[in-house]
Prior knowledge:
91 residues; mainly alpha; 434 Repressor (Amino-terminal Domain); 5 helices; 70% helix; elongated
Amino acid sequence: MSDLKKxxxxxxxxxxxxAENYDIGYQNFKIGxxxxxxxxxxxxxxxxxxxxxxxxxxxxxxxENHADDIRLSTLRRYAKTLGRRIKIEVV
Length: 91
């Protein structure tokens, strides 16, 4: 087990708030990373994407780094601008 996994496991065992919020936070982090990867694969900077979406670079940064509070309509526009679609699955 890696040091990071050990640290996460220890924190989950010792702190109920951390354990309760970890999975949601991790999922939000993954969404932001995915969005950033898609933007980079499209060859766009944050500034360029912001111009296409008629918003500010800071908004793109916030989406990519704090995806926990992104509106679905914003997520759809972001994906559409990159030539992608959003698929939501409830399991």
